[in-house]
Amino acid sequence: MARLDHGGIATVVPSEFTSGFELIVDGTPQSHVDLADPTHLHFEYIVRMGAVIDQLPGGPLTAVHLGAGAMTIPRYVEATRPGSRQQVIELEAPLAALVREHLPLPKGASIRMRIGDARAGVGKLPGALTGACDLVVSDVYSGAQTPAHLTSAEFYRELSSLLGPAGVLLVNVADGPGLAFARRQVATIAHVLPEVALLADTQVLKGRRFGNLVIAASAAPLPTDWLPRMLAAGPHPAKIAQGAEVRAFAQDARIVTDADAVASPKPDASIFLR
């Protein structure tokens, strides 16, 4: 157990639903890790991120991850793309220490952990990463909400500057009925990166229940040819929206700026149990 700087409590416990362990923060499951099989992705939205990553060109990746959790995706990248170079930025030093103690990273993995605010940390990354990343993942929660300053066009421009010509940005967004927050996030990201796709459970994408939506974005056409069939097959059936469907989803939604950014809605913990 670790007491976090913001006053919350983090624990690592055996998973009740599958093999492996879960990182619990303030009573909400944040990450699942299977040390015996890092390719085992349990949470639905993480499965969808993994599906997009699998579409990227073969070989090692250069990646930046904002929000460490138990480092599920960095472990997945290391397992599926040996030799990848990865930077992880995590706000909470006690959480990082807890994960290192109970869920150690694979020996020899090139995964550099940096402690600090995600946005400030991006500005401190090595200059060689600018324009060189194949993958940037933004999955940051503080007290179960994404902080406002990590939702704006200015922030996404900073992330886009890290991407190589065909690099992909993945953003986890949690929202509920009406999807007002998610629509603004899609509009904002599309304002920065022209190629955008949405991956989510159909009921979530229709705004019928609270859940996670994965936004994938790039300056180049996204490598999504095989995704619709893969996502429909499971293990967590989902839909991918692209092109006109994404434009309709974000229609009339205002772009988020630093001046009017707000934190994401508080997620329902039950979304992690589906």
Q: Summed up, what is this model?
A:
With 274 residues, the chain is α/β, with parallel strands linked by helices.
Core attributes:
single chain; 274 residues; alpha/beta; 9 helices; 27% helix; globular
Task: Explain what you see.
The chain has 274 residues and is α/β, with parallel strands linked by helices. The protein is 27% helix and 27% strand. The chain contains nine helices and twelve strands. The strands form two sheets. Strands 7-6-5-8-9-11-10-12 form an eight-stranded mixed β-sheet, sandwiched between helices. A hairpin with a 2-residue loop joins β3 and β4 (28-33).
Secondary-structure topology with pairs:
Elements: E1 2-3, E2 9-14, E3 21-25, E4 28-33, H1 44-55, E5 62-66, H2 72-80, E6 85-90, H3 93-102, E7 110-115, H4 118-123, E8 133-138, H5 153-160, E9 163-175, H6 180-192, E10 195-200, H7 202-205, E11 211-218, H8 227-233, E12 239-242, H9 244-249
Parallel strand pairs: 5-6, 5-8, 6-7, 8-9
Antiparallel strand pairs: 1-2, 2-3, 3-4, 9-11, 10-11, 10-12
Helix pairs in contact: 1-2, 5-6
Order of helices and strands: EEEEHEHEHEHEHEHEHEHEH
**Spatial separation of the terminal alpha carbons:** 25 Å
The number of distinct β-strands equals 12
Main sheet attributes: strand count, strand direction, barrel closure: 8 strands, mixed
Q: What is the strand arrangement across the widest sheet?
A: 7-6-5-8-9-11-10-12
Structural class assignment: alpha/beta
Our estimate of the beta-strand percent is: 25-35%
Q: What is the rounded Rg?
A: 17 Å
**Globular, elongated, flat, extended or rod-shaped: what is the shape?**
globular
Average pLDDT works out at: 91
Count of DSSP H/I helices? 9
Low-confidence stretches: none
